[in-house]
Amino acid sequence: MKNVTVAVVIHNGKKLLPQLAETLNSLPSDLKIVIYDSGSTDGSAQAASTVIKNAYIIEGKNHGFGFGNNRCLEKVDTEFTLLLNSDASTDTAALRRLVSFLESNPEYAGVQPLIRLWGWEKVTVSSGVFLTEYGEAWDSRFMHLELSPLKTTLQVPAITAAVSLWRTEALRSVNGFDEGFFMYFEDADLSLRLGAAGWKTGVVRAAEATHMVGASSRRQKAVEWELESSIRLFQRYLGNGRLSARWWKREMRILLYSVLTGRSPLWRIAAISRAIGRTADTITVPEDVKAVLYGEPMDYPQSRIERNSRGPGWKGNTIHPWGGLQTDGGSMTLQLKALDHAVTGAVSSGEGEILNRFCIPAGVTKEVRLAESPSLVYIHCDSSSDRVEVTTV
Predict the structure, then answer these.
(1) Verdict on whether the full-model pTM lies above 0.90
(2) Which residues lie across from 339 on neighbouring strands?
(3) Could you tell me which CATH number the domain at 314-392 has?
(4) Per the count of CB atoms within 10 A, which of 149, 191, 269, 302 is most buried?
(5) CATH architecture group of domain 4-211
(6) Could you tell me the sign of the dihedral formed by the alpha carbons of 269, 274, 280, 284, in that order?
(7) Number of H helices, E strands in the chain
């Protein structure tokens, strides 16, 4: 696969290198690999040169994710560029499907696979990228349980840089990433600029990859960067260079709520000030992209995994309307109590095989016994409005 170069940006990610090395070393040996180390202080660059075969490593300052990828792009001399997060993984079969699609569809600048949650292969974390009306980029079907997703290719307004294959000439035609984004949503901006230039982006759902989601950054810093990036997106594509009255009205409500609940709003004010201070040119989104820019409600993101949660999909001891559970592989009894109203659903293995169907009247508890449980179990209801309280015995 001599026509592909893999580009990876790392920053103090030494703990992620074993998984990253396993991924890169398993791909075809004729792929080129370029890694940009963004000012790491934990020895990431040296460690990467040791564990990743034939990688060309660039060491530089930390000016953001897009900046690092652009430095990688300067070294690319192949037809395609695979962008890969340090906390993501793909395989040769998926990569071949992405390459084959771009070779057969010259109007596409880039495509991503269906991306699953690392360790939970039936949980989707990205099936394309869309915007909210306030400029926030979001991953379609984030934290949705999909036992049997559709395999057809889907055209979307934007794709994620976590795992995506791009036509190198297309990236260069728009000068790569906008380095005015430090981190987050720069991939949505890149896709939309390419869309404005006449290119398409899509999701090849027959190819799959995995992503740890947030393993490379602290959540509080992520929220700050996301706010700054959303402002830049709004000004560029939605607000004609400005923040609208509607945008400010929502922000005032957020700031007031922070004060009333005893949380300091100063970090938000500082982030807004920084973002407004960075000018962004305005770009007109093509009508076909604008028509699908905000996505469909059924694809909206669900909650992230809560800290100390038993797995994805849980809120305390309740699933809304599904939850994943790690087991010790032995026999297990689940006590399922229907909340709000009667529920129907199933218990499935980590591979998606249905182990048990259930129908529970409102307020009633039903036991589901598994004589031998798989290492992963999904408990899922048939309706998105269902809630079930779960106790393991």
Answers:
(1) yes
(2) 387
(3) 2.60.120.260
(4) 191
(5) Alpha-Beta Complex (3.90)
(6) negative
(7) 10, 22
